[in-house]
Specification:
Length: 91
C-alpha cells in the first residue's frame, strides 16, 4: 500500500509529493493504519494538498485506488484521523 500527500493546487501541473508512506501489508485486511511524514516547512498555506492511496498486489498490479484526493493540511482540513476510501480497479 502506498499513501501520498500531494500538492493538488493546480490540476494540470506536474505532481509534487509532499510525503509518502509505503506499507507492506502481508495480506492484512483493511483498515490499514498509516502516518505519512512530511516537512512542515514545505507547506505553503496558499496551496492545497490531498491524500491519495493505492494498493497493489505482490507483482505490482494495481488493485485498489482512491478515486480522488482527500483534502488535508491547509484550508482548515485535517492533518490526522483520515479515513481514505479506495475503490477496486477494473482488471
Amino acid at each position: 500500500m502506498r499513501v501520498q500527500i500531494l500538492d493538488i493546487t493546480t490540476v494540470d501541473a506536474p505532481t509534487t509529493i509532499l510525503g509518502e508512506q509505503v506499507i507492506v501489508t502481508d495480506g492484512a485486511q483493511v483498515p490499514v493504519v498509516f502516518a505519512v511524514s512530511y516537512a512542515a516547512s514545505e507547506v505553503d498555506e496558499a496551496r492545497r494538498y490531498g491524500a491519495v492511496a493505492q494498493i497493489t498486489d505482490g507483482e505490482g498490479r494495481l488493485l485498489f485506488v482512491t478515486s480522488q484526493p482527500t483534502p488535508v493540511i491547509t484550508e482548515s482540513n485535517p492533518v490526522s484521523g483520515l479515513d481514505l476510501v479506495l475503490v477496486q480497479v477494473s482488471q
